[in-house]
Structure formats: structure tokens, C-alpha cells
């Protein structure tokens, strides 16, 4: 954290680290949100204001995502230059993201099959929000039907400017990657464009730094509003389902990533987690990997992971690598089949896992996206619309809190893979990573 911001906090009597502000904001938000939930009708105007504050916080981060992703990719790839190195980064990225996501679905499937949280919960499957959800699910299913080919075609933008205007991340990244590779091949003539994007990158990182001054109130507002809608008592209703998902996330976070860091790199786990804590807290508060991306890049670069690696691995990870989502989708679908008393053959379990792998990586890094793309998995299983809808309304009721945690897991795995690749490719400054007091100025 920059010295002047720390000085400012000390000056206003809050001389504690920003991470702690955010952490306290989350705790306070949970308690206050629960109070509002238990006393409906009280403090309504205050909740409305909090809602505006929270939405403003998310919007202002989202505002910098597209310029940041474009500039990070252009500056990063054109600085790599050598297409062999890009290929090496790409292969490693697919390998590590692949391992992490396959492990996630296997862990999810083993846990849900062993603990069987779906047995005996049929009574909780409510049909209340059925119609609204039915429309939503029908639309998604209609869109997805026979569309695996179209899914790939849609990655290629017909008009990059249109994709930019619509904020379509995958086509934007696709164009930016090809454009930057071409730039790196045209020699010195690329200087004006690369310098332009260097300035855009520097400015967006500066804005991110400013935004983080408001992280604590923003995340406090978001947490209070979301907890006020479901209340803490929801945990007792769905405790078994929640426990399975939560144990799965903990295994990923506390066992799988540390093991991968140990096996494939020499990055110290504790130091690394401390370095990215700010991004993790923002991921929890916003439930959006894309909105957290500026922070993920800032945390990694400030603590020594090279710009080359961050600009390539993190934007792609924020859109394609959703291991927390894949784990959640596997657990949720098998849970629903248990609740409906459907017996699954081993081949169907494998089918669910493969579909969860695909559907999680087609899912945007925005709140709730993982629950919508779950339709692909459920539909692949041949569940009837009625069954889908009943189960969906149940999952919708509890999704926000699960989303907050799975997004934290998604962001942690993006950063973990970036750290491993940076280590493998000698693209990490260990002095900076190990020195908690001294952050690198990336601007
Ligand atoms: N909210 C998640 C993310 O942004 C995606 C999901 O809904 O699973 O990473």
C-alpha cells in the first residue's frame, strides 16, 4: 500500500492496514445485514443508500476492466515479443488451469457422493420463484441447444469495436492477443501504439489504486445488502449442502493451491497468500472475478510477478479459469439428483464433471453467472424443465453467499497459476515477494 494512503489513514485515526479495514467491513456487513433481515422494514432508506454505494463501487471497478485488459495484453505480449515464449506461457497456462479445474470437479464429486447432502431435502425445494426462473432457464437452454460449435465461433469477434462496446470479454481478449502478437512482429513501427497502451495501463492502475481507498465502505455496503436478503438463518436450512461446497472450496484453497505451489514452484505459500489478500477480499465482496481483475493484477505485480506473466495469465484466468464455479456446479447438480431420488450411473457422474468443466469456463466473471450456466450441465443430464425450475429456485435463494466464496476461490487460483508460471519462467522477483514492507511501484 502506498505510503501516502497509509499516512492518510493514520491521520484520520485508522492506522491499521487496508486489508483489515476490508475484513472488518465484511464482518460488520454480515451482522448488520442479518439484523436488517430479521427486522424487515427497518432502516429501508439506509439499505437503499447502501445498495447505491455498493453498486457504485462495483461499477467504478468495472469501468477500468476493459481498458485495463486491453492495455495489459498489448503491453505484456508485445514486451514478450518472442512467439516461442508466448507459446510456452500458453501451454503452461492451459496445463495448470486444467489440473486445478479437473481436481476441483473430482473433489466436488467425491464429497457430494460421500456426504449425500441431497438426501431428504425435497421439502426445502421451493417453487416460489418458479416462473421468473423458468423464463431465465428456458432462455439459457434455448441459447445453448446445439451451440457447442457456435460457442467457439462466438469467441472470434466479427467487429472488435462492437465487442468492446458490448463488453464481451472473450472476443476482446481474442482480438487483443492476435493484435499484440502482430504488433510484436512489426518492429520499431509499433512504438507509438505500444507507448499509448503503456500510458493507458499506467492510468488504469492509478485509478485502481484510488478506487481501493473506497474498498472498505464499498464492500461493507455490498455485504450488508446481500446478507439482508438471505439472513444467516439460511445456513441451518441448507447446512449440509453448504458444508459440502464449503469443504470443497477449503480443500482447493488450503490444500490444492499450496500443494501446486510447492510441487511446481518455490513460491512460499504464506507470503504469497498475504500478497494477494486484498484481491481475495474484493473478490469476496464483489462476487466478480472480472471486477476484481485490476486488483489481482495490482497485487501480483506489486509483489514481484512480472508484467509479462500477469498481463497474459490473469485476464485469461479471470474469464476462463473458474475452478470454484466448476466445483460448485458439480456439487449442485449431483445434490439436485439426490434430492429428486435419481440414481446416477458412473458414466453420468463423469458426464456431469465434464459438462461442469465446460460450462464453468464459458461462464463470465460476474455475479451469479455460474448458476445460470449450470443449465448446460442440468440440460445435458436430461432433467425435465419442471425439475430444473424447482431445483433452481432453491439454488437461487442461497446463491449470493456461495458465489462470494467461489469467486474468492476462482481469483486465488488465477493468481496461483500466475505465480507458478512466473517462477518456472524466471519472471518473479523474490526479493519483492518476500519483503512485505516494500512494494514495487508498477507505474
Ligand atoms: N461470480 C463468479 C466469478 O466471477 C462466477 C460464478 O458465478 O461462478 O468468478
Task: Summarize the structure in words.
With about 450 residues, the chain is an all-alpha fold. The protein has one domain: Orthogonal Bundle (Proton glutamate symport protein), CATH 1.10.3860. The longest helix is centred in the C-terminal third of the chain and has 40 residues. The two termini are about 15 Å apart.
Summarize the structure.
The chain is mainly α and 443 residues long. Helix content is 79%, strand content 0%.
Which percent bin holds the helix content?
A: over 70%
Task: Please name the fourth-level CATH homologous superfamily.
Answer: Sodium:dicarboxylate symporter
What is the beta-strand fraction? Answer: under 5%
What sort of overall outline do the alpha carbons produce when their principal axes are compared? globular
Ligand species = aspartic acid
- Report the major sheet: none
Give the total of domains. 1
Count of alpha/pi helices: 21
* CATH level 1 name: Mainly Alpha
Low-pLDDT stretches are: 1-16
Mean pLDDT: 81
Radius of gyration: 22 Å
Helix/strand order, N-terminal first: HHHHHHHHHHHHHHHHHHHHH
First CA to last CA: what distance?
A: 13 Å
What oligomeric assembly is this protein in? single chain
Name of the CATH architecture = Orthogonal Bundle
Q: How many distinct beta strands?
A: 0
The structural class is mainly alpha
- The CATH topology turns out to be Proton glutamate symport protein
Amino acid at each position: 500500500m502506498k505510503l501516502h494512503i497509509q499516512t492518510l489513514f493514520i491521520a484520520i485515526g485508522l492506522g491499521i492496514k487496508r486489508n483489515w479495514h476490508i475484513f472488518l467491513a465484511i464482518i460488520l456487513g454480515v451482522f448488520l445485514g442479518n439484523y436488517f433481515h430479521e427486522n424487515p422494514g427497518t432502516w429501508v432508506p439506509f439499505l437503499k443508500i447502501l445498495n447505491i454505494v455498493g453498486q457504485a463501487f462495483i461499477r467504478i471497478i468495472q469501468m477500468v476492466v476493459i481498458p485495463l485488459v486491453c492495455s495489459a495484453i498489448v503491453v505484456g505480449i508485445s514486451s514478450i515479443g518472442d512467439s516461442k515464449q508466448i507459446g510456452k506461457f500458453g501451454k503452461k497456462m492451459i496445463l495448470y488451469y486444467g489440473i486445478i479445474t479437473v481436481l476441483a470437479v473430482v473433489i466436488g464429486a467425491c464429497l457430494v457422493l460421500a456426504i449425500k447432502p441431497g438426501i431428504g431435502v425435497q421439502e426445502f425445494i421451493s417453487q416460489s420463484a418458479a416462473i421468473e426462473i423458468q423464463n431465465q432457464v428456458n432462455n439459457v437452454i434455448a441459447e445453448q441447444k446445439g451451440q457447442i460449435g457456435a460457442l467457439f465461433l462466438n469467441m472470434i469477434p466479427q467487429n472488435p469495436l462492437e465487442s468492446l462496446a458490448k463488453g464481451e470479454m472473450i472476443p476482446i481478449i481474442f482480438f487483443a492477443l492476435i493484435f499484440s502478437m502482430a504488433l510484436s512482429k512489426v518492429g520499431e513501427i509499433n512504438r507509438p501504439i505500444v507507448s499509448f497502451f503503456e500510458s493507458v495501463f499506467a492510468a488504469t492502475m492509478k485509478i485502481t489504486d484510488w478506487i481501493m481507498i473506497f474498498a472498505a465502505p464499498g464492500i461493507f455496503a455490498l455485504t450488508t445488502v446481500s446478507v439482508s436478503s438471505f439472513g444467516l438463518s439460511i445456513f441451518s436450512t441448507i447446512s449440509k449442502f453448504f458444508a459440502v461446497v464449503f469443504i470443497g472450496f477449503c480443500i482447493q484453497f488450503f490444500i490444492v493451491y499450496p500443494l501446486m505451489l510447492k510441487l511446481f514452484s518455490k513460491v512460499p505459500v504464506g507470503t504469497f497468500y498475504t500478497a494477494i489478500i486484498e484481491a481475495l477480499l474484493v473478490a469476496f465482496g464483489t462476487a466478480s472475478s472480472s471486477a476484481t481483475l485490476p486488483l489481482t493484477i495490482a497485487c501480483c505485480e506489486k509483489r514481484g510477478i512480472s508484467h509479462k506473466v500477469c498481463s497474459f495469465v490473469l485476464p485469461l484466468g479471470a474469464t476462463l479459469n473458474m475452478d470454484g464455479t466448476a466445483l460448485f456446479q458439480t456439487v449442485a447438480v449431483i445434490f439436485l439428483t439426490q434430492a429428486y431420488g435419481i440414481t446416477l450411473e458412473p458414466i453420468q457422474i463423469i458426464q456431469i464433471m465434464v459438462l461442469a468443466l465446460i460450462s464453468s469456463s464459458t461462464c463470465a466473471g460476474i455475479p451469479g453467472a455460474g448458476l445460470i450456466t449450470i443449465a448446460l450441465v442440468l440440460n445435458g443430464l436430461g432433467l425435465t424443465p419442471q425439475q430444473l425450475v424447482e431445483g433452481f429456485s432453491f439454488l437461487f435463494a442461497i446463491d449470493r453467499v456461495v458465489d462470494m466464496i467461489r469467486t474468492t476461490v476462482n481469483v486465488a487460483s488465477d493468481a496461483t497459476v500466475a505465480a507458478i508460471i512466473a517462477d518456472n519462467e524466471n519472471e518473479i522477483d523474490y526479493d519483492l515477494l518476500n519483503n512485505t514492507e516494500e512494494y514495487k511501484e508498477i507505474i
